[in-house]
Amino acid sequence: MKNAIATTRGWVHPKTGELLKAQKMTQEKADKLNGVKPEPVKPAPIVEPTPVIDPIVEEEEEEKPFF
Questions:
Q1: Is 22 within 8 Å of 9 (Cβ atoms)?
Q2: Which range of residues forms the domain containing residue 22?
Q3: Model's pTM, two decimal places?
């Protein structure tokens, strides 16, 4: 379809938006037919795990008689 735009509901006229041919397609397929290039996928950043430091628990001293 010359000059028609692919959409998820089919081919539409570029100026009027009139549905010229009904055809179900995915957004990815419509983008490919319209010449839209997908954005490159960026890799997730590498996050170094933060070491977990156990808190130091001080032992309580036993109470000693004061005399």
A1: yes
A2: 5-34
A3: 0.53
pLDDT for 7-59, tens place per residue?
A: 999 999 999 999 999 999 999 999 999 999 888 889 988 988 888 777 665 66
What does the buried/exposed string (b/e) look like for 33-60 if buried means 16 or more CB atoms within 10 Å of the residue's CB? eeeeeeeeeeeeeeeeeeeeeeeeeeee
Report yes or no on 21 lying in a domain. Answer: yes
3-state SS assignment for residue 24: coil
Q: Residue 10 carries which DSSP code?
A: E
Nearest Cα to 33, choosing from 17, 10, 66?
Answer: 10
In a domain, 67, yes or no: no
Provide the β-strand partners of residue 21. Answer: 11
Q: Classify residue 28: in a domain, yes or no.
A: yes
Q: Kindly state the tokens that stand for 65.
A: 């008689």
